[in-house]
Amino acid sequence: MRKIFPWVVLFLYLLITVVIFRPYFFEKLVPFPANLLVSHYSPWKDYDWEGYPNGPPNKPIGFDNLRYFYPYLEVSLQELSQGRLPLWNPYNFSGNVHIAAYQPAVFYPLNILYYILPRIDAWSILVLIQPLLAGFFMYLFLGCLLSRTASFFGGLVFGLSGWMLVLSEETLVLGHAAIWLPLILYSLEKLRQKASPSNLFLLAASIACTVLAGFLQTTIYVAAAALSWIIFRLKQKSRNRRWPVHLVLVLLLVMLTCAVQIWPAVQSYFLSPRGAVDAKFLFDGYLMPPWHLATFLVPDFWGNPGSYNYFGSGFYYEKVIYLGIPAFLLAFLALVTPVKNRQLSFFRYFGLITLALGFFPAGWLLYYSHLPLVSTMIPSRIFFLSTFAFSVLAAFGLDIYLKEQSVPKRLRWPLLFSLVTLISLWLAVIFGKNLFPGAAFIKVATRNLIFSTVVCTATWFLFFLPKYSQRLSKKTAAFGLVLISLFCSFYFANKYLYFSERRFVFPEVPVISQLKKIAGINRIWGYGNGYLEKSLNAYYGLYSVEGYDALFPARYGQLLYAQNTAGKLSSQISRSDAQLKFASERDALFDDPYRRRLMSLLGVKYVLESKTGEGKNWQQSSVRFPPNGFRPAWEDDRYRIWENKEALPRAFLVTEYLVETDPQKIVDQVFNPDFPLGEMVVLEKEPEIAIDQRQPARTDVEIISYQPSRVEIITQSPVNTLLFLSDNYYPGWQVRIDQAPTEILRADFSFRAVAVPEGRHRLVFTFVPAVFTQALLASALGATLFVGWLVIAKIKT
Q1: What's the CA gap between 543 and 547, in Å, rounded?
Q2: Which residues pair with 42 in a beta bridge?
Q3: Which residues face 701 on adjacent strands?
Q4: Phi–psi pair at 289, nearest 5 degrees
Q5: Whole-angstrom Cα distance, residue 548 to residue 536?
Q6: What is the pLDDT of residues 630-673, one digit of tens each?
């Protein structure tokens, strides 16, 4: 029975998952924000969709999955389908690293589903499997500490916690980096008993999965939790006295095996703005005030974006601490009950400390610690660890409730907390009208408060009923508490989770189809109402100067940000975005000289314009797009595509250059209206061959092959020249001229130039980062050593 019971639990969790995600299983909908795409973003929202005269219904949730993770997944799979590693993404930021950006999670083992199932179904399974695996792994871990009933409940609480449910659809890789924590702890417990090959493999696989899942901040939190547990367990006896040695070996070999993901990401981090940009604004916005504790009981007191009535500050999903009311009250019971249990004491302290670090003022310790990554990321994400710890405490609380002969007297403390909280919130909605932006929001808060008050009252009733009724045992009451917890989770999930029709998963509309036909490798951009959101273009293989990513070249970001500072460089730029300065329907596109220069330099040849929307009567098209600079390239009844006559070719030859090492002076030249872009470049060192600084009568440049990590160009010139390529300069790019290695020079602050001898030549650019090659060898070595260790361990057993 002991061997069968875990499978029974897994089956029950699976049934619960099917109920929560029933639209996917029974209505052929997918847990992907496709409805949001066609209702909210240009150009899709400007076209008609059959059956929806006012646009498909949507929830304002899942933006990162839509504009980052799914398009970049497409980039990965397209490259892998061609037998190439997706090292470079040419579609955004005028070129950026891909594998080294970390979040594409190219090596995550569960991504094998994309080769087994249709893409959107693989995505859907990876979404809905998160609460399932999180709950089951938690059950396994708690089974080492508590009874089956308490373990089942704790797994249920963690898997269906508010944090896990919202992150499963908000940021796919973040949730996947988190779900492996309980399995790591379970594997550690098994290793303490016996260093069998299966235990060693399970520990190594769970660590590797959290590292490769693609969200480094969560991986760091997982590592912090696991390390804390290891230190705690080192003080206690175990059957396997050598388990610390085995653990160190596993960690070393796993980190070596994962080098192919870690080492390139470390390099890209130091070349990105992440370490330089001050993140104080994140702590100002996402360190929670004390009253946020009320959301343990009333998670939607300030509304919920899934119900279109959120009026809180910041992103809702970054602040969730909700476990369900019975789970929270049981966790509170575990906190205040004086039980001599070391494991319980560990999770008490761990839960309270991690919870406090997400609140003002304790959370400022993370900022002022200046620890890499941790001090520069959203601080409230540490609620993942407090959610985990409080889920464990809820399991302990249920165990305490069931083991005591009578109803625990300590229940009066969670009762008192919930009573004071609910009364305070009721007083706020009745008398504190100035706390709300309007009467409509008071109704929202009141409605959600009524629900939580009813659920809380029912929970109290079940807690204390066995004390006054001989017919009702505490086991029956516990069963009722589990049902109420499930009800809380179902209600929360039904309100928040989104599902979309499959036909809206990145459909092609006429303007997109036309761009794919005419743009080639030329870059595109969206004007005014027709603005094309950053990174969405990558799904269609369209090239953009803009991008949205955690890691991208800092110099490129500085250059584009200089549009906002009159050409002055700054290290305090956007951490995740680079974009051309937005042009509203009031703006003539060439009115901003900085944007105009960059559009020319970066080869922005095609500009989308919507024919509908607010402000179309503010300016005539001839003002927005002056005839001397633009000509119509295509149009239908909704959109027009303009061709920018000033856009330079993606690659061209010049014979004139300046040498300048001061970054600001380089940028000054780029934005200098007297500096002839397309005829002269700014280098940071002298070329290896002498360039004849006279303009030849004729030069030819032809890009004969343009792949993400390989560009082949033919040049023809009667004199020595410089080839300029408007792709980002980045370590790892190499070039050969007629098979001979040649140096790539940094030109115009962030791009590539190569000194080319006279005559006809074939240049081949390839992206082969030394750090990736070294990491690949290290990973192969680590995997080989680990497999060899397992074989030896198997023979010995």
Answers
A1: 10
A2: 532
A3: 715
A4: -75, 165
A5: 9
A6: 999 999 999 999 999 999 999 999 999 999 999 999 999 999 99
